[in-house]
Specification:
The chain is of the alpha+beta class. The chain folds into 2 domains: 225 residues, Alpha Horseshoe (Serine Threonine Protein Phosphatase 5, Tetratricopeptide repeat), CATH 1.25.40; 85 residues, Roll (Chitinase A, domain 3), CATH 3.10.50. The chain is 69% helix and 7% strand. The longest helix is centred in the N-terminal third of the chain and has 34 residues.
């Protein structure tokens, strides 16, 4: 009997060794695939390891990161919960859970886990700025402000807190205070596009166009993405057009009033102007969404210009009759 028991124990140890070796090899293959830039294939190997019982906090956190990258936020949250059971004091895991629940639209759960992180690390400025962001998402603006105040009190160089201050003051239409917050952010992150772009936008909103142009140019100098640089250049052109007294508008042209009324009704329901123009307009610029670009006084027919000048930015005109048909116009700047 003792001999049989010894054999059974030896076989169990041998099976356990093989089992551990299988997990190790799966994780290694996953690591190699991840290093080669194949996250989906790496995820397959990691999930096999998980199903065999891999459960170290380090492994689970890596798997959760992959789930986050592939937008499988519910799976990321489940794995992160397992990781906390392995080690309840992992500060980054609470923050990652906050991110996962925020991505799922579960803001209360996101707040709960970041609050847990705050309990573990009450002197972390980063956690307070994260809470400030989440409370803004909940619409609790003053509660958000309290968190940001605490974040900056703990670390005046917390750039994210200053960024969120800028957003906070923008919501209150306190443009100069918002600009001051983004200015501080730009000092802390001088190579980032966002603070310069935001300051430019706010100066333009305040009709300080020379300042807007200055900051847009600074933003463009820092833009690494060519599409972003192109978008900023578009903003520069728009400000220059305003300074030059130019307007920008788009229109939809149809043959008869009945069709114009149908188009106006669609726009009134909130349908996208450019899409409606592409589908209905008989104008040569229909495929451009009816956009005319910038134009100055006297460049277009008087009826068109007079209508545009009477509109607020974004406002739709009534039906305008011209010799070629019937138009609906929207002012863009």
């Amino acid at each position: 009997m003792r001999y049989l028991a010894a054999i059974g124990l030896s076989m169990a140890l041998w099976a356990g060794t093989l089992w551990a070796q299988d997990i190790f090899e799966l994780v290694q293959r996953g690591d190699a695939l991840l290093a080669k830039g194949a996250p989906q294939l790496a995820l397959v190997e990691y999930e096999k390891a998980l199903n065999l019982g891999a459960g170290s906090a380090l492994f689970l956190n890596r798997l959760a990161g992959l789930y986050m990258q592939t937008t499988a936020y519910d799976k990321a949250a489940a794995v992160l919960h397992k990781s906390l059971r392995e080690d309840p004091k992992q500060l980054p895991v609470y923050s990652a859970l906050g991110e996962a629940f925020l991505a799922m639209g579960k803001i209360d759960s996101a707040v709960f886990y970041v609050e847990q992180a705050r309990i573990i690390a009450p002197a972390s400025s980063t956690i307070y700025s994260s809470l400030g962001f989440l409370y803004m998402q909940k619409g609790q603006v003053e509660r958000a402000r309290e968190q940001l105040d605490r974040a900056v009190e703990l670390d005046e160089k917390n750039a994210e807190a200053h960024r969120l201050y800028g957003f906070y003051y923008s919501q209150l239409d306190s443009l100069d205070q918002a600009i001051a917050s983004y200015e501080r952010m730009s000092q802390l992150q001088p190579n980032e596009v966002e603070p310069f772009n935001n300051m430019a936008f706010l100066h333009a909103s305040a009709k300080r166009y020379s300042e807007a142009l200055k900051y847009y140019k600074m933003a463009k100098e820092r833009a690494q993405d060519p599409y972003l640089a192109q978008a900023i250049e578009g903003n520069i052109e728009a400000v220059r057009a305003i300074v030059a007294g130019k307007m920008r508008a788009r229109y939809i042209l149809v043959k008869n009033r009945i069709k114009a009324e149908e188009v106006l009704a669609k726009l009134g329901q909130g349908l996208d102007f450019a899409l409606v123009a592409q589908q209905n307009s008989i104008a040569p610029n229909a495929q451009d969404g009816g956009d005319l670009g910038f134009f100055g006084p006297g460049e277009l027919m008087p009826a068109f210009e007079e209508t545009v000048m009477q509109l607020e930015v974004g406002e739709l005109s009534e039906i305008v009759e011209i010799p070629m048909g019937f138009m609906i116009i929207q002012r863009l700047n």
